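Researcher: Re-running this chain for the archive, since the previous output was lost when a drive failed. Same request as before.
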Amino acid sequence: MKKIAYITGDSSLTGAPLHILQLAKNFKDKYKILVITSPGKLVELCQEEKIAVKEIPMRGPLDWRAVDKIGVELKKFAPDIVHTHGIRAGWLGRLASRNLKCKKIYTEHLWTSTFHLKNRAYEQFQLRGLRFMDRYTDATIAVSKTVADFLIKSRGFDKSKIHIIPNGISARFIESKPIQKPSGVPLLLGSIGALNNVKNHQSAIRAFAQAVRENETLNVHFQIVGEGPARKRLENLIKREKMEDRIHLVGRVEDVCERLSHYALFISLSLSESFGMAVAEAMGVGLPVITSDIPALKNLVGKAGVLVPPRDIKKATEEIASLLKDQKRQENLGRIAKQRIKNSFSEKLMIDRTERLYKKLLN
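Model: Regenerated structure tokens:
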């Protein structure tokens, strides 16, 4: 049985760790799997699924102690493939495996032309590090065409190594559908994402508030799921908009799929996305979406949703009000969205494409 080692420096319940969990769960009966990750929730989830997991703290791309520890575990495991995810593990894991006789794969989950770090010097350091590590890489997976375009346009990456394998949406989302609320019950709009400047919840809050003020007959509430450093600023904005009874910051939720099923409409005006997992999951459930016209979301949504400039409050306000007043359009967009995810972005497709790449490299 061939062996695959997955490495991530993030053990939260976000993009890369959940991506690794999807891969490990689907491949554990075909390959011998080892997950190497920092301490956190991913460890517990792997243990629940009876997937071998090793905790190694990874404090940054220059954590040489972590490189040594990862190297020790890899030598004991003797993998045929080392598959690293994210900047931290991409650096540490590829350094640790550079002298091993195995195939090295790196998945880029973050970088696009719209993403930037506050510290531009550190941004350039990270990108130079990625380019340098390309020499220790047999294949680079981009989770969207937008990520691939960025890598290809950035000097230093071998274009022939780049493969586009979009993130996959779990069948549970695709099999779910919005709950029909009784007449007279307020409609619930939703958004999911970390409370930070990049997710741009402030524009969604302003647009929703304006739509309610301009259309007094709208019986709607707006939930924002997530936590982050911008929470206090968003709470203050909601107070200034006098929307405390309509807009709710609900924090993290355990069951995202169940929560999405209660929404009538999903809003995401993010300034940068590499794929747009929250939007894709909402589409999978069958929700109409209003989202940013940034490259990754345009590629994801296509004609299955409403695209607006992320900082154009007036346009977003108009689209929210218009869509809420047109139930037939809501249902049509939701149906198209679900079909698009099922046809192009399902977990099964992601797994099949990844396994084809594994077999190609191993052969």
